[in-house]
Write a structure and sequence with these properties.
The protein is an alpha+beta fold and 176 residues long. The chain has 2 helices and 8 strands. It is elongated and about 60 Å long.
Length: 176
């Protein structure tokens, strides 16, 4: 302990005291769980409507927070943000369906759900946009269901045509 800073020594002492106190009280410390990594599915990051509703929605950020709430349970809160663009002047509103999938390291989907994000925009010109943010909490998961390397994948629920359009647009932008 000669080369440790005072802060490190104090932290270690406080941590050790906390463990000893919980052991003396007869309570086991809560287990540690590595929070799954959240990602936006590249082919599901855009939703474009061009019939009567002429808008584009894009997901641009996702984060996940985990808290162990008991000896065998953890609660997750997912944060999603993006932008809702007008492709021409007008008033727009939409309910954006976003899927949330828990995926194992072997790409097996163990749980999937959909949440809706409501947005509206009064656009004076094409390109006007609003940002949207959504917190999805209350995602309770059994600790034994969370494994190292698990991911949480987020994207828009798309029709086959919308998905094909996203893939085609991505290939066009990348020069494939």
């Amino acid at each position: 302990m000669m080369f440790m800073s005072k802060i490190t020594k104090t932290f270690l002492q406080v941590t050790l005291m906390g463990i000893l106190l919980s052991a003396c009280a007869g309570e086991k410390p809560l287990p540690y769980v590595e929070c799954p990594k959240p990602f936006i599915l590249a082919d599901g990051e855009r939703m474009v409507k061009s019939d009567r509703q002429n808008w584009t929605a894009e997901l641009n950020w996702v984060d996940l927070v985990c808290e162990v709430t008991g000896p065998s349970n953890t609660e997750l809160a997912l944060f999603i943000s993006g932008r809702f663009y007008a492709n021409s002047a007008g008033a727009y509103s939409a309910t954006l369906p976003v899927f949330i999938a828990f995926v194992t390291p072997d790409d097996e989907v163990i749980s999937r759900m959909t949440r809706n994000i409501s947005v509206s925009l009064k656009a004076d010109t094409s390109g006007d946009f609003v940002s949207f943010k959504q917190m999805v909490n209350g995602l309770n998961v059994q600790l034994d269901a969370i494994s190292n390397g698990m991911q949480v994948i987020v994207g828009f629920e798309l029709s086959a045509e919308e998905l094909a359009s996203n893939i085609s647009e991505k290939k066009r932008r990348l020069g494939y």
